[in-house]
Records
---
Amino acid sequence: MSSVAPVVQNPFRQQFAAFAAGRREPDAIARLRREGLDRFASLGWPTRQQEAWRLADLGALAQIDLQRPADALVDAGVLPTLDLPVHRLTFVNGRFAPGLSRLRELPGQALIASLGQALLTHPERIEPHLERLPGLSQHPFAALNTAFWEDGAFVYLPRTTVAETPLHLIFHATGDDIAVYPRLLLVLEDGAQATVVVEYRGKGRYLNAPVAELQLGAGAVLHYHQVQEEASQAFHLGGVRVRQGRDSQANLHLVSFGGQLARTDLDTLLDGEGASCVLNGLILAHDRQMGDYHVRVEHAQPHGSSEQLFKSVLDGQARSVFDGMIHVRPHAQKTDARQSNRNLLLSKQARANANPRLEILADDVKCGHGSTTGFLNPDALFYLRARGIPAEQARTLLVHAFANDSLNRIQLTPLRERLASSLADCLALGNIEEQ
Amino acid sequence: MLEIRNLHATVDGREILKGIDLVIHPGETHAIMGPNGSGKSTLANVIAGREGYEVTEGEVLFDGKNLLEMAPEVRACEGLFLAFQYPVEIPGVANLYFLKAAVNAVRKYRGEPSVDAMDFWDLVQERMELVKMDESMLKRSVNEGFSGGEKKRNEVFQMAVLQPRFAVMDETDSGLDIDALRVVADGVNALRGPERGFLVITHYQRLLDYIVPDHVHVLFNGRIVRSGGKELALELEEQGYALYNEEPGRARRAAA
């Protein structure tokens, strides 16, 4: 595999020359792009000899001669809705689609815009934050994103600004053999609050390699939801970086339904005393789908707390990976870090891989982790059937009960309800295809 | 309403039931008593249709229909109920939701429309009173974190809501203190009637002070070795099952 790497890298470098030549943007941004490209070149195309990519089969993706996407139009009717008043920004193939976007009134100095537009109007707000977070430093696709992102969403809420209206960010990809690199930069200053729903979806055989950067100032509160419903032939290799200030709260909900291979690397740095985060992830996969969360929670300051709950429901020959690291630095006393990974297998061919890891360098902390993988409980199935509930309905009920543990943590009701019904569709589809 | 004829059943290839004959008419309550390992729970599970129990001979008819050919859910929809010895915890499924799904499954089977929400709530309220169940238990996940007594009460509550025509109580008394036992027995007695049959399986005579049976059968080593009226339970209480253990012929056969 390693001999393949240089061959695959070349097209990206060639593409980059043409791509970068056409862009008008501040030198600082152009420099970040070149650094991203260089980082990708030094990291190389991932191989299964690398521990972090050991379980990811990128063979099918490596076969594709990935091109930059063409401009495309999508019908507003295919876009997901939330049944709520929202600020909506839509991006098609990584490019801003103003006709499919709608901003409502914003509080005070808040700014919600396409990253490209904001760079023209408010570069001083962006440059101090873009690509400044640690994390994902070893992620080749995050490096590619930094080199190639065309546009994305920029959200900036000044001190104590509370955005009551949720932000709905839709990233739609369409086409075959293309790569899109959407970007999200979210900056919550001290005491700011926001609710964000990010949707990744599309049509065709494409690579989506998004990067989201989430910065929380002291006391900021973020409810972030990421729904991955990529096309069934698509690849999703995304990254999320988070840095939390003192006493900030990050609630991150990640749901993964789509794609043939979907992986999100999530790096969270609790960088202020008393910062807390809840990371709630759910994978639903059937047939030969693979869903993967690589999570790193870094406790850098005392009194932080983190809770990871990652679940997967796997049918057919689907696979899931959960790789979760809790790292507690020596200074981060009184940390309370918990991690749980639970996997439900609906078929004997499905497989869940769990790799929980702890690195605890402080001596006065509470850390716990657990992982379980199993089939539906036959006793529970029989119990339901013995009360008259047909076998198939009983099975569905139990799967929903398992997944609802994750979905019920989502406070945004319209989203939660929509996901519950997507879950039903997804599992029904899996059943039909299995027969 | 329930006819069991020459029923033989194996678990993991081992024969547990070795020819059971039992006929229960509507309105009758039969008790089956026996020591551990005699086959009591196997009989309950075979009647309810649990996987892993293989019937090798004989038949079970429910209102003349071949019960053994029916899936467990069909048996339930036909009016059969098993009160579990070990009720299963089902995290994430609320008790009330589960009960409504069960009621509607039975109604659908009978070609009836789904239950009206208000009617269902009224029924639930009324039946909760019967087993002195707290309303908070409806919102909790099925049996999750319930005490032993709460679980058994929940079984009787489900029975009271589903109103089966025939119920098998599998050691419903085990692990109950006397107060809980009374509540459970009161619940069962309230449901007794000319159209309804009960098969009460127990290890202890104590339950039969509260649920007074019409007939008592002693199950030993996979066979009914004795049948009689309610006084048989008292006799067993005094003499224990040792009598049957010491019967030389049976003991030899059991060892074989």
---
Amino acid sequence: MLFVAVGLLTAGSGLLAVTSRQVLHAALWLVVALAGLAGCYLVLGAELVGLVQLLVYVGAVVVLILFALMLTRSGGVPVVTGPAQRGAAALVGAGTTVLLGGALLAGSGWGAVQVAGPTNTQVAEGILGTYVWPFELLSGLLLLALVAAVAIARTPTGGREGET
Amino acid sequence: MIRPALPYLLVAVLAGLGVYGILARRHAVLVLIGVELLLGAAGLLLVTVGQTTTATDPAAATSGQVLTLFVITIAAAEVVLALALILALFRARGHVDLHADLDPREEAAR
């Protein structure tokens, strides 16, 4: 099945993204994982969400992450924690997977269902009709995040002027 | 026809990988990668539920996809702010190692 292929690609590249010791490789595997997730959305019949995911994540967010990795390059700093904490993290991660997967699979069962999602026209009507106020608030949130990010990144190091 | 169990399984795997990535990394930007995977799992769960259940009410039928779009937007805003904070941290300390000693008195004495 198509979803199995795309899902395996997503899960495999996600695993490499969180385990790779090269910071740039991890970011590039994140690109593959997020693109695979967009493919999952397409297979599930949510074309609009899939394309927005491709546009926003692969186009914008990953480029930002790559820029941040380039700008904060400092040699010799280890990127992974010690083996004890890695083991504990793997335990917590595996526990999350088992609990979440168990709960979801117990709720859904193994049967196949028909994909019965809304059309893109209905989604657009939902965004600009039922959900129009959250949608407008989100534009305000994005503007606020942009201004706040510029303000934070421009702050001189060592606190405000006069303190140092 | 699709088995909803498969997307749910992928949701669980991605959430576990995201939690592992957040906990097992020292580099601040790589912690963000774990957060991205966790948010992706949340979006996939919303889309799967929205696409495999039938609802007659149009607001309920579209809510899965619309909420995923909202999650993606909020995640973009969150990443912008987090990266700005990480850049400020790097300019103040010269590294983004989350396990380094963050005692401000020691930093001032250096």
